[in-house]
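Lecture notes, part 5. Sequence design as translation. It can be helpful to think of inverse folding as translation between two languages: the language of shapes and the language of residues. The source text, in structure tokens, appears below.
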């Protein structure tokens, strides 16, 4: 069957056309066409995604992105294609993200999907964005065959989770962040350093530069939060605050004495303004901070993932989410095969790490195979992983 995936949960407007075959035991997918429009430039000046701007841009861009994906799939041939006047170009099913994400942004995709479904007289399945990140590995060249049970580590701008999968339909969340998601921590630390949104790629480039340079990098040590917590949960807010204190310590050493120790949140004297404190740091200092922050994140994620593997003894480790675009993290996670030679490690191709609709089409197909799937087309900002 041919599935049209639609993704608008955050700042990417994405549409994909995917051919899906097989049952839950032998899923097979082929990407026929895919288009993504990123709104990053639009949100950059605000230092993060503004939900109503995201919605407006999705509404504007959806018809264009759809047309591009259908053309690439060879299902339409002229630029005059109009969703309101054209026949169904052989699509059998629409899969649209219903959550988690920014509700105004999600609604834009849902309304568009409903309209198309009605016009083309085909079913529309509500799809979970995080299940999309899990399904993103089904397009990887290393996928071949793998077995359940599996453990999935999902790291994105909004989530940091460990999921246990008994099979494609039976899932359980076994770990989550108690505060910031790891991508969010990257974005916030980048902002402190005066780097643009989204911060992940910026920090990652600086950290890599620090590792590969011959310059002597000072030994800073940031905390590895919850490493010994005895469970599989994460916390990145303390690490973020440690970075802020460190920066304040070198830029405004006296201001630290005004802050009462042991209070929660960021004291007013430490709140970072629009441009962060980046202007007051040298390039070398930024490199040192980026490298140590990234090392702390990687060590934390690796330790918790190993703990989950030891505890649940899975046959497969699935890794997904935008933060997996991070080269050092990717390499470290792939290196786990040395410690666990029996474990199959699945990771998406780089283009499928950040938000896209190809993964939504795949997750939508899996959802469809669950006795018809989720027909409730309602934006659910905090939608949890289904079980
Ligand atoms: O999955 P995603 O595209 O969107 C959400 O579902 O949230 O993830 C976006 C997050 C952002 O926080 C971004 O900074 C982070 O992924 N990210 C990275 C890298 N590329 C994107 N974080 C670290 N290193 C990267 N190279
Ligand atoms: Zn995502």
């Amino acid at each position: 069957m041919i599935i049209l995936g639609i993704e608008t949960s955050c700042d990417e407007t994405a549409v994909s056309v995917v051919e899906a075959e097989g049952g839950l035991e032998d899923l097979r997918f082929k990407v026929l066409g895919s288009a993504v429009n990123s709104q990053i430039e639009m949100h950059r000046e605000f230092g993060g995604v503004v939900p109503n701007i995201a919605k407006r841009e999705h509404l504007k861009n959806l018809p264009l992105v759809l047309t591009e994906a259908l053309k690439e799939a060879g299902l339409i041939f002229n630029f005059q294609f109009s969703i309101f006047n054209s026949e169904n170009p052989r699509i059998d099913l629409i899969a649209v993200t219903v959550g988690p994400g920014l509700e105004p942004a999600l609604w834009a995709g849902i309304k568009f999907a409903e309209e198309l479904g009605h016009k083309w007289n085909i079913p529309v399945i509500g799809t979970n964005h995080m299940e999309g990140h899990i399904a993103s590995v089904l397009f990887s060249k290393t996928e071949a065959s793998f077995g359940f049970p599996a453990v999935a580590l999902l790291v994105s701008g909004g989530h940091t989770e460990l999921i246990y999968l008994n099979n494609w339909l039976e899932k359980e969340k076994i770990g989550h962040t108690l505060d910031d998601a790891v991508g969010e921590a990257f974005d916030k630390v980048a902002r402190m350093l005066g780097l643009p949104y989204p911060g992940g790629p910026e920090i990652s480039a600086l950290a890599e530069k620090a590792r590969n340079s011959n310059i002597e990098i000072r030994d800073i040590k940031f905390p590895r939060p919850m490493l010994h917590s005895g469970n599989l949960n994460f916390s990145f807010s303390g690490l973020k605050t440690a970075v802020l204190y460190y920066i304040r310590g070198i830029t405004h050493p006296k201001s630290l004495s005004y802050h009462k120790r042991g209070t929660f949140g960021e004291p007013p004297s430490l709140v970072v303004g629009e441009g962060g404190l980046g202007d007051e740091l040298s390039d070398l200092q930024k490199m040192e901070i980026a490298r140590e922050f990234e090392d702390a994140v990687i060590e934390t994620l690796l330790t918790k993932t190993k703990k989950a593997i030891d505890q649940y003894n899975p046959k497969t480790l699935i890794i997904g989410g935008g933060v997996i675009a991070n080269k050092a993290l990717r390499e470290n996670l792939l290196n786990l095969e040395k410690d666990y030679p029996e474990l199959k490690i699945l990771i998406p191709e780089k283009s499928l790490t950040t938000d896209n609709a190809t993964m939504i089409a795949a997750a939508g197909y899996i959802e469809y195979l669950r006795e018809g799937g989720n027909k409730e087309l309602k934006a659910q900002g905090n939608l949890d992983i289904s079980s």
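The translated text above is only one of many valid answers, since several sequences can fold into similar shapes. The pocket of KG4 (ligand 1) is lined by residues 10, 156-158, 183-184, 186-187, 198-201, 204, 321-323, 325-326, 354-355 (CB under 6 Å).
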